[in-house]
Here is the input.
Amino acid sequence: MELTDNLLREAHYWMRLTRALDDRGTFLHKQSRIIGGFFSQIGHEAISVAAAMTLERDDVCAPMHRDLGAYLVRGMHPRRILAQFLGRATGVSGGRDANMHGMGDMSLGIIGFISHLPASIGVTAGVAQAFKLKGEPRVALAFFGDGGASQGLAHETLNWAAVFQLPVVFICENNQYAYSTPLTRQMRIEHIADRAAGYGMPGLVVDGNDFGAVYQATYEAVARARAGGGPTLIEGKTMRMRGHAIHDNMAYVPPELLATWSARDPLVRLELLLRERGLLTNTSLEELRTRIEHELDEAQAFAEASPYPEGSSVTERVYAQ
Amino acid sequence: MTWDQGLHGAVVSLDAPAAGGVTRELTYLEAIRDGMRFMMRQDPAVVLMGEDIGVYGGAFKVTQGLIDEFGADRVIDTPMAELAMIYAAIGLSFQGIRPVVEMQFADFISTGFDAIVQFAATNHYRWGQPVPMTIRAPGAGGLRAGPFHSQSNEAWFVHTPGLKVVAPSTPADARGLLISAIRDPNPVIYYETKYLYRSLKGPVPDGDQAVPIGQAALRRTGEELALITYGAMVQECLNAAATLEREGHSVEVLDLRTLKPLDEAAILASARKTGKVLIVHEANRTCGVGSEVAALIAAGAFEYLDGPISRLAGPDTPVPYSPPLEDVHRPAAQAILRAARDLLAY
Ligand SMILES: Cc1ncc(C[n+]2csc(CCOP(=O)(O)OP(=O)(O)O)c2C)c(N)n1
Ligand SMILES: [Mg+2]
Here is the structure.
């Protein structure tokens, strides 16, 4: 799969938008306009954007709390996302769910996640099972973390997907930490992808901060799944560049580790590549950033002008009619 | 006789209903199977999933023969992984499939608990996507099956917003409530009573005879005392009521059928009419379904009561194996009679 100029330019827009929306959320939280928690995804732009860009319109994916990029690529408008963060009626969950949780919309092929990690990989396998039962050439893709990998469900789901040869791709975002817990307390192996062999599916390790590497590996896995070749586990090595959530100053992360990963910033690397290809200049970068800030200003204005849900509606929607 | 065949020395046969239409005599187990077959014929989106349910026909043979008619794509044998199974069912439901998931025993549903109470139950509230999914849970005791094959754990789910919980006590309801459960756009936990699988037979109306979720059934009317119950205890209560009638008492039996949402109107009507209520269930007492029924009556029928709202439930212990222990644990007609006589004399 060739990384065309157009593909890279598109990726650049999504990754810049992702980071800008993340910054905007952080800003709104500091101003106490976003209440409750806020999860930053800085460092995850390449994985979430690249993986989501390999999917077709009719495919389905299950992003988690650091996959803002995947929501955007799938077509979830920043307006709805900011309204969700602000607890407004126009937010994705209508004020029912908090921050990144419950931002599902099946019309966009997005499964909303619950806090119980890695629950959505199980649901995603079920979606893939439906595609297979119905003979539809569609693929489902799920994200999970290095922490989630320790849960029994990760084992059950990977095994399940392999047994049924489901058209599903699992992306493990290994960002070195699960909250404050480092990898060494999570597992005794170096690569989570090595576990794939135990399930009888291909497992790949990729540089999760390299857009092209994630895109190409995922593209092939998606194509294999679509052709009936079954599931794949891809592990993207990356780093969570902020605290677990905004309250966490991550004093437990050694500064050298952060410095190492700072030098591998996925956005900077993509921009370097774009410059090498003559696709980006200081001026065009500035133009893009300005355009994105305008988009987010508009989205924020929409969210802030949106009403809160009526308190009296609290019992509505518990059951489908 | 083994636990998977059930205790069926004497098969109880229910009388035919007065209403017309074609009916067949089916056991409780056959009625469940017939409900699945009916829905699978009617709706190609209905798919069964579970452990050993295909060629083997299920641990209790409830799904026997269905794979021959519907094939392995619709009667899916799975790995032994309830959590992945229920999560997968949620995913299937997102793509228009109507999964009916069999737990081999209700006891193992705890292994899939997160998927039910965290994901399925909250999903529509959170982002508006319905989860039409039925989980069949073969529950309750009386079969000498011990602590891990006898549980009545329905209260876990009755406590959870977003779920519906049904517990049919007759073959006709077993079929009719299963039809409703599969059609419902919400996750429904369908408690089937293993004890009744082969020990209870009755007329089952053919065709599209759904029993609505949320409606209790008055199995017997009376004036002095109401026995409010569900599951296998319905038969025990009817036996007790018949004995009490011979002793000159008029006792009614209300079969809840649906545990969530409870039929509050029927419960209050029974309580108001009789003034004395004995709630009976196999599940242990503390925060059981009976607790909620009692609270409803206390709040909604207080002025009508002529005696304390009483409960007869399994004690707060695991369900024991050895017969003398289980016989004390599980309410039966004798225990019901004792409690009923106390209340009648109050
Ligand atoms: C089952 C479960 N236990 C605990 C938590 C609380 N918790 C939220 S995120 C998190 C760490 C997750 O780490 P990882 O899976 O590596 O994802 P990351 O946040 O690093 O992207 C924990 C412990 C949870 N969400 N789910
Ligand atoms: Mg992590």
Residues 28-42 of chain B form the longest helix (15 residues). Residues 1-8 of chain B have pLDDT under 50 and may be disordered. Chain B touches chain A at residues 47, 73, 78-79, 81, 83-97, 114-115, 118-119, 122-132, 161-162, 164, 185-186 (CB under 8 Å). The pocket of magnesium ion (ligand 2) is lined by residues A 145-147, 175, 177-178 (CB under 6 Å).
